[in-house]
Amino acid sequence: MSEPARVPRDADDLDAQFDSIVDALRRDVRRLRQQVDRFSHAYQRQAEERSRRASGGDVDDETQRGYRRLKQLQVVVQHIESSTAYLLGSGIDPSADQSEEETIAVAQRVLESLEAEQQRLYRDVHDGPAQVLANAIFEIEYLERIADRAPSEVRQTLRTELANLKGQFRSSLDSVRAMIYDLRPPELSELGLAEAMGNYALEWEARCGIRVASRLDTMDTGLSPMQELAIYRVMQEALQNVHKHAQANAVGMAWQHSNDNWVLHVTDDGVGFDLVKAARHKKSVGLLSMRERAELIGGTLQIQSTPGKGTAVTLLLPAQKKVEPLRARRDERAREEHS
What fold characterizes domain 188-338? Predict the structure, then answer.
């Protein structure tokens, strides 16, 4: 790892101290990624050589162990990169001498890490709480059949209590299944972005009971899979925020190509909120998540809301645009928020 960050002499200059620490962290993360990449190349060479020497092309135990170690290292580094970029913002921002390809590669790895974490949660929730709740409902139904043979003086009480318990479990299972649906990977490659968003909107409308009026441009976006997936996740988060906070009756969702830009626009007729207070709220994770994803793909996110007058979320993504350094965009956003 790199040498400890040189803390400025003025101990009261917290901004300078923060920048110094972040610079050192950025260098360390980049160096760690390079070490893992070298390990990956060395493993691939060794695996190919062992495969040629092995009879029948079988993979030996040592090669399998090396593969598991490589995957562990890659997952760890992805999480480090993701956490640094997500929590510190400029933490792994590429330096000025990095190429456009390196900048895009960093953004790609951060988004892949975020998606990998969602897929891990998807599997954990599917195999954990969902199965437990389903089994609990099955056990309660078994107890209901036994309760029919109970003495008459307690039979009705048992039936009532078991029915209430089963209702609670079913409600919880419905919530968990909704979470699983949101976490699962969308079928963008098979359906296309517009159709995938339309399918999600229909399912969300049926689940949440809030009308959705959609206008979706189905033409080929020309965007990368990384960008399309990030757009889909922003759309999901915008609708989830409506369900959780807006108390809305209707939602409008538009996805269209306009003036060399792709635009996602999600509006609701809910209670709205104070943008200044929300920005200062430590639990505004949904807003931060949408903004981070937009910036990682070279876009911008605009949120307009007034208490009592609903909310509008707009993602603007130039159809052909280089991914700009994250620090430059975040510094610009910070200036706008404090102006």
Answer: Heat Shock Protein 90 (3.30.565)
